[in-house]
Design a protein that fits this description.
The structure is a homotetramer of 280-residue chains. With 280 residues, chain A is α+β, with helices and mostly antiparallel strands. Helix content of chain A is 15%, strand content 38%. Chain A is built from four helices and 13 strands. In chain A, a hairpin with a 2-residue loop joins strand 9 and strand 10. The first copy, chain A, is globular, with a radius of gyration of 19 Å. Chains in contact: A-B, A-C, B-D, C-D.
Chain lengths: 280, 280, 280, 280
């Protein structure tokens, strides 16, 4: 078990009446337990919360008037991970009904045009978790992590051609290649501690292998077994941390992740926690 | 009320073990009542049926061995339509939580890149059902209905540029323009009688207006109030009539729609039904 | 030396006054000699011919009135080929000024977005003709030749993703990968005899290697040393066999290639010529 | 006549042996006279200059070794402009052979997919210079000038959808819409004084109207009759101010344009020149 304290602080300058929808809160999920949490929004704002029954994502929405706006979410979350060794693939005929749609193409994951190339590249690999690991490794080795090389509308197909992207692009490509060879796959975003600042939300993917969802991080930047899950979705449009309708300027964005010592106490001689405050 | 008898006959030459998933059955929906129906699949096939709880779409799946395969669905469906006159738009802040995601871009509906153009074209129109009608009319007047001009991977953005497509492209563009100006919208496919053969599945769209879903057909080819709904989805990938994993050749596809006289009896002098058999 | 008799017969139904521009005639080129040729166009049409000084392509243009139109070009062409063994690449700094622009991206050859992937795939191969052969072989092995999989606006980037195309798509991808690793490359279209009918125009590419242009055919469908060159261009838009401005329907298209016995006489026992008449 | 002093200062940190090709020099063109000019490149570099016979563009190329590199071009150029009032369009059948290819699609100007939309929007306008003015005005009114909204690989089609771009995108869209309705068009880049700094190269387009090329600036940012022409091309790839093969970092880029008083002397009371120094 890993205990993390995660926090997101967002400040906005709202210029016109604006409707916001956020997906920042740690998910209630079998692999994690929210020990404590609090959400603070500027006073006078009526916050409406709901959980999407399909994905389990927790959203909160509100209307904001012009002026400064603060959103601050903080939680202590225990993450439980299982060791996953070898797992077989599930034949498509045995994919459960409710998982089936994760085989379909989505906005940023055009598995419908990448069937041949995925088959060429990974069709002859032995089915099983090792095949998805090969996909993740190939992405890690072939796609350059380069901030600024993609935008919020960049798709897996474009990333495959340009060979550059950021974490969500890496995850989208992994999802696309999996779906294209008939392995259900979806996006996961969450909090995870990076060796190198700045801290930020992270995007990885999970594939349906051996009757369960297994996480993969093609960026190799963070240990997937310590990720505090926020959202799960078909692709990035389902798990945007913030969606707004109106006119706003984001003036501050700080994501911090504090990983507590797994044994629950500070070892002598060095601090048991590492604090990383993200830049805007 | 309109009573229709609808039927789809599909024949395949299955070349290798194949898993099929179909979405052919009339939906259980407030606006229609299935008076009777039957589904026939080649003997020896174990059919598994399920209804997607999110969309209400009815799917059936099965594994097929090499050889000929027949799927035949037939139903009598009563369609009830309400006259819709004037309806206001729902401010995005009042869009219900479970409808909210229909504002997001999807595989074939890139509303995330068409925000400016949609705003330019329809942003100054008075909000309400008339604005969506203007969108549908603009599509009707500006996009050429031309079979062969698009493929199964064509997107709304491409249709907007090339100004040609088929019914699903018209619907995708309507959905995209609606979402881009913050009106939830989604795809509807179903059975409807066309004046000119061949009969085939039809795709239209519906927008969330005045607290309810309202149907629009930018092709103008069919009366929306008589459509027997099969599927409802974010876009075409959610409502494919057939998805398969394996190797097959479709050897026959016949869609027929028989509109019974709305008064329930044959007028003297001419037959009360119109039969249209679709070509392959 | 190979002697070929080539012919293109085109018939159109001109529906409105139309301006035509054709590029059908064998080029005057160091590697081929036009022994005889004739061009026939429906009577009453004033044909204007010109040769583009940059490419050497021969065009003819005319205005046609409504009614039937016939264009028939026939030529006997001697093709001289040199055996090309090993050739080094030319460093980009030594690429002649007039060849330099063949390093740039064009409409169907987006070498500007494929630099990284081309470098990844072929950047570590030893420079020289063998590297271009590896590109051509990779295309041959990885892209499926599938009529109908592409359109007249399909680009190399799309072919790279979808892994299917026809001869012009194969050539465009070869050109793009060459340019992306700084080897000048361009499209060549011409007449060549195919083992399997129908005969048609063929598209291949040539790369600037060892101070000369060398032909490559990634489809492997035809012997490049026997191609009767019609046109040379940056990509397909420069060498369309026919461009028209108006309203026409093509009612007949026959391309035929007759390869005479290289020794100039009929061997005993079998005919010295092979005739292949192309379908529409 | 307008007399301008133009200057470009470029500094690079060359990290590995690199081949450069620049297109910075004012063109020798009927509408302008280079009164004086000088080109300075870091010592020890052997510069090779040439003029492309097709476009008239002046290029200089050289190899650079690792270390700092300076390129400084300065010229006094007299620009002569004619007043253009009304001009008819040239029917495509009368477009001269050497102009004909400016009707074709190019890398960033996909007129082949925008034929229908261009015809819809401008097909019913009276032919002539006023129709091209309508195209330029429509772009001005419909496309937002927004630095950062496009990249070096953005095409006209994308600009048409996203409704945002910079000067080259505006020009590409103008070219594309013209070609799509059979008006030859091409890109022009040059030096022109902007009211608002920073100064930079400017891109506009010219269309073949009334038997001559006429300049249009859909950004409306600069008077076209005072532009000092550097390059003329099918689209941006033909007129990049700098192309390099190697590894470099640009450390300084200053473009300055000094418009001398057209009467050739300083009016009393205020300076006769306006100096604008461009930022990096």
């Amino acid at each position: 078990m890993h205990l993390s304290t995660v926090e997101t602080v967002l400040e906005y300058d709202v210029k016109a009446p604006t409707h916001f929808c956020f997906n920042l809160e740690a998910a209630h999920w079998p692999t994690q337990k929210i020990a404590s949490e609090r959400l603070a929004v500027s006073s006078g704002v009526a916050v409406h919360s709901f959980t999407d029954p399909g994905s389990g994502n927790r959203f909160f929405r509100f209307d904001a008037s012009p002026g400064p706006l603060l959103v601050d979410y903080k939680a202590d979350v225990e993450v439980y991970s299982e060791h996953v060794d070898d797992l077989p693939e599930v034949p498509v005929s045995q994919v459960p009904d409710e998982i089936f749609h994760y085989l379909m193409p989505t906005r940023y994951c055009e598995s419908d045009v990448m069937g041949s190339v995925a088959q060429q590249m990974f069709g002859n690999e032995a089915p099983g978790i090792s095949r998805v690991r090969k996909i993740a490794n190939w992405i890690h080795d072939s796609i350059e992590y380069r901030p600024g090389s993609s935008t919020s509308t960049t798709t897996a197909q474009e990333v495959f051609v340009q060979r550059a992207g950021v974490c969500r692009d890496f995850a989208h490509l992994g999802i696309t290649l999996c779906r294209a060879i008939n392995i259900p796959a979806r996006l996961v975003v969450g909090y995870v501690w990076f060796d190198e600042p700045p801290q930020d939300f992270h995007a990885i993917f999970e594939a349906w292998i051996g009757g369960r969802w297994v996480l993969f991080d093609p960026t190799g930047m963070a240990p997937v077994d310590r990720l505090v899950r926020i959202g799960t979705g078909r692709d990035a449009k389902d798990v945007a941390f913030s969606t707004f309708f109106g006119a706003v300027e984001m003036t501050r964005k700080e994501v911090s992740v504090l990983e507590h010592d797994p044994r629950g106490r500070a070892p002598s001689g060095k601090p048991s926690v590492v604090l990383a405050a993200a830049g805007a």
